[in-house]
Amino acid sequence: MTRVWYRLLWLPLALVLPGCTKFDVLNATVPPLGYCRTSGLAYGESPRQKLDVYEPSQKLDRAAPVVVFFYGGSWQFGERRNYRFVGQALADHGIVAVLPDYRLYPEVTFPGFVEDGAKAVRWTHDNIARFGGDPSRVFLMGHSAGAHIATLLALDEHYLKDVGLMLEAAEAAGQPLPLSQAHARLMRDAIAAGDGDLDNAAIIRQWRRGRIPNS
Questions:
Q1: Terminus of the chain with fewer CB atoms < 10 Å: N or C?
Q2: Does 89 map to a domain?
């Protein structure tokens, strides 16, 4: 009961305290039970190439399915620590969740963040069994710019091939959402400063190339 009351008391405080973000409010509702988090695992050499793993605390009869979740932020903002509520929700449903950070613009430009995503998937494939996950059942999930990363990894096979994985090693769950004009401009900046090839970044172009199945 003490923990429950602590959460109930903290939630209204999070709404009024200066410096509290929407993520603080969401994470204030996350119960402290039902998952085990391992933080700060490196999948590359950059400080931004780290990830957290959330594994279900309940005993499972078999290795659990795995979701790699990429957060959004126009490829310019975001931190994995803000999405504890996502890791908890997935772990509570018997899924091992992997939440990576990735390098952002202007440190890197397109397709650097997608290449980081591929490296995180490769790390997951190689290491997730020791966290109770099934490397043959890895799904990609994301929102906003993170959904864009997940979708490009699932549709443009060269990203996973470049890290030694076949496309069948991961499946995409979810889809990118329409962007506001402001967010679209931010993402165009990150693309134009890189290889500048909008065709390689645009999901609709992948569909026209026949990379999205019709059913």
A1: C
A2: yes
The pTM of the whole model exceeds 0.90 = no
DSSP state of 71: -
Q: Which domain holds residue 91?
A: 34-208
Q: What is the pLDDT of residues 49-68, one digit of tens each?
A: 999 999 999 888 899 999 99
In tens, the pLDDT along 75-104 reads 999 999 999 999 999 999 999 999 999 999
DSSP 85-135: HHHHHHHHTT-EEEEE----TTTS-TTHHHHHHHHHHHHHHHHGGGGTEEE
With vertex at residue 145, the alpha carbon angle to CA 142 and CA 147, rounded to the nearest 5 degrees, is: 30
Residues 69 and 130 in one domain: yes
For residue 215, tell me if it sits in a domain: no
Same-domain status, 73 and 22: no
CA distance 149 to 144: 9
C-alpha distances in Å from residue 104, one per residue of 43, 52, 75, 158: 16, 18, 5, 21
Q: Give the Cα separation of 100 and 53 in Å (integer).
A: 9
CATH of the domain at 55: 3.40.50.1820
Residues 26 and 11 in one domain: yes
C-alpha to C-alpha distance for 136 and 134, rounded to whole angstroms: 5
Q: Both 19 and 124 in a single domain?
A: no
Q: Is 148 exposed, middle or buried (0-12, 13-18, 19+ CB in 10 A)?
A: buried
* Token digits of residue 127: 């290491």
